[in-house]
Automatic annotation (TrEMBL):
SUPFAM superfamilies: Thiamin pyrophosphokinase, catalytic domain (SSF63999)
Protein name: Thiamin pyrophosphokinase, catalytic region
NCBIfam families on file: division_SteA
Superkingdom, taxonomy of origin: Bacteria
Keyword annotations: ATP-binding, Kinase, Membrane, Nucleotide-binding, Transferase, Transmembrane, Transmembrane helix
Occurrences of domain Thiamin pyrophosphokinase catalytic (ranges): 194-234
GO molecular function: ATP binding; kinase activity; thiamine diphosphokinase activity
Ranges that cross the membrane: 334-353
Pfam entry (one): SteA-like_C
Species: Romboutsia ilealis
Domain called SteA-like C-terminal: residue spans: 320-368
C-alpha cells in the first residue's frame, strides 16, 4: 500500500471534515471513530486516514472504522501524539505500508487497518459490550439522581420568541442516517408545516433539504455561519454554571441569542423547551437514544435524555430509523400502466384527424396485402 497526498490536520474530526476538498490524507486524533465522523470523512473523498489515537479502543463496537474501510479508505492507526504534532496542514507526505514519510524522512508508523483488521477488532469489542453496559447503567442511575431537578422545575426555562403552542415541532439532530430519515418524512414537513428546530449541525441538514430552521439549539460547535444567519431564533446551550463558549461565536456574527444553562445534551433542552411551551407533538429525528449513540458522543451515561423522554412521554415520536420502516419502490408495471393511461386519450383524439385516419387506412391495406401474400 502506497499513498502520497497533501494532508489536512485537526484534533476535531467534524471541524476537519468541513475543510476537505477531495484527494487529501486526513490526520486526526480521535479515539473510537464514530459513525457521523466517518461519514463526513467519506463525503470529503479522502484517500487515507492517519489517526493519532486508537480508532477502535475495544470499549464498545463503534461503527466508524467499518464505514471507512467499506468505502476503501484505509486507516493508519494509533501513530501517537508526537507524530500528530509533527505534521502541518498542507504538507505532502507519503505512506508506505503503515510507515509515514515526509521528503524521504521516516516520521513514524502505525497499524494498517483494513476490512479484516477492523472486523477482528470489532469482534473483541462486542465481547466487552456487557462490561461497558454495566458501567453505563450505573452512571445513568447516578447522574439521574443528581439531574432530576432538570425535569422537576428546578431549571428555569428561558423565554423564547417562537410560538410552540399547539403546533408540531420537528427536532433534527445530525445523527445516524439523518439524511435518509429526513428524506422519508418530507411529505410530513410539507403537509404539517412543523416548527423546524436544528440541534447544532442539524440546522445545516435542514438547509441541505431546502428548509430554513426556525430555531437553532446547541453549543454552536458544529453549525455553519450560514445556518446561524438564516435562523429565526438561536438558543445557546450553556454549562450549569452559566458559561456559554458558543455565545461569543454568535455575537461575533452580529447575532442575538438566548442562553440556556442546563445539564444534559442540546437535543434534551430542545425537546424540553418544545414541551414546556405546549407543543402538540414533538418529532425527533437523528437523536441519540441508546448506549452506543452516547458512547460515540463521549458520554458515560444518558441520565438527562432518560429523564426528558420520561417527562415528555406521549408527545414524543422518535423518527430515527424511519427510512427502514417503509421503502417505496416504483415497479415497471405501474410505469407501463401510467404510459398507457396517458396515451389512450391522445390516440382517441388523434384518430379523428384526417391525416391520422388516412395513415390508419393505409396501414390496414398493407396488412391485408401481407396476409394475402
Amino acid at each position: 500500500m502506497k499513498v502520497q497526498a497533501p494532508i489536512k490536520v485537526d484534533r476535531k474530526t467534524k471541524r476537519l471534515a468541513k475543510r476537505l476538498t477531495g484527494g487529501e490524507i486526513a490526520v486526526i486524533n480521535h479515539v473510537d471513530i464514530d459513525e457521523v465522523a466517518a461519514n463526513s470523512l467519506v463525503e470529503g473523498k479522502i484517500k487515507l486516514v492517519i489517526n493519532a489515537a486508537e480508532s477502535i479502543s475495544g470499549r464498545y463496537p463503534n461503527k466508524g472504522p467499518g464505514i471507512l474501510t467499506e468505502n476503501n479508505i484505509l486507516i493508519i492507526d494509533n501513530v501517537g501524539e508526537e507524530l500528530f504534532h509533527n505534521l502541518t496542514e498542507g504538507q505532502i507526505i507519503e505512506v508506505i505500508d503503515g510507515n509515514i514519510y515526509r521528503d524521504g524522512e521516516l516520521l513514524g508508523n502505525g497499524e494498517v487497518l483494513g476490512k479484516q483488521e477492523v472486523s477482528e477488532k470489532l469482534k473483541k469489542a462486542y465481547e466487552n459490550l456487557s462490561v461497558e453496559l454495566d458501567r453505563f447503567i450505573d452512571n445513568t442511575i447516578d447522574y439521574a439522581k443528581k439531574e432530576k431537578g432538570f425535569i422537576l422545575g428546578e431549571v428555569e426555562i428561558p423565554h423564547v420568541k417562537t410560538n410552540y403552542a399547539n403546533k408540531h415541532v420537528l427536532i433534527v439532530v445530525r445523527g445516524q442516517d439523518y439524511k435518509q430519515d429526513l428524506s422519508t418524512i418530507i411529505s410530513y414537513i410539507e403537509e404539517m408545516k412543523p416548527i423546524l428546530v436544528g440541534v447544532d449541525g442539524g440546522a445545516d441538514a435542514l438547509l441541505e433539504f431546502g428548509y430554513t430552521p426556525d430555531v437553532i439549539v446547541g453549543d454552536m460547535d458544529s453549525v455553519s455561519d450560514e445556518a446561524l444567519k438564516k435562523a429565526k431564533e438561536i438558543i445557546v446551550h450553556a454549562y450549569t454554571d452559566g458559561r456559554a463558549p458558543g455565545l461569543k461565536r454568535v455575537n461575533d456574527l452580529g447575532l442575538d441569542a438566548i442562553v440556556f444553562p442546563a445539564p444534559g445534551t442540546s437535543e434534551d433542552i430542545a425537546m424540553l423547551i418544545a414541551y414546556e411551551y405546549k407543543a402538540e407533538l414533538i418529532v425527533a429525528l437523528g437523536t441519540h437514544s441508546n448506549m452506543i449513540d452516547f458512547l460515540e458522543k463521549g458520554r458515560k451515561g444518558m441520565a438527562s435524555t432518560f429523564l426528558v423522554r420520561l417527562k415528555i412521554g406521549a408527545k414524543l415520536i422518535d423518527a430515527k430509523g424511519v427510512n427502514l420502516l417503509y421503502r417505496s419502490k416504483l415497479k415497471m408495471k405501474y410505469i407501463w400502466a401510467l404510459i398507457a393511461t396517458a396515451l389512450f386519450p391522445i390516440l382517441i383524439i388523434a384518430s379523428f384527424t384526417p391525416s391520422v385516419k388516412q395513415f390508419i387506412h393505409l396501414m390496414q391495406l398493407k396488412i391485408k396485402f401481407l396476409l394475402q401474400m
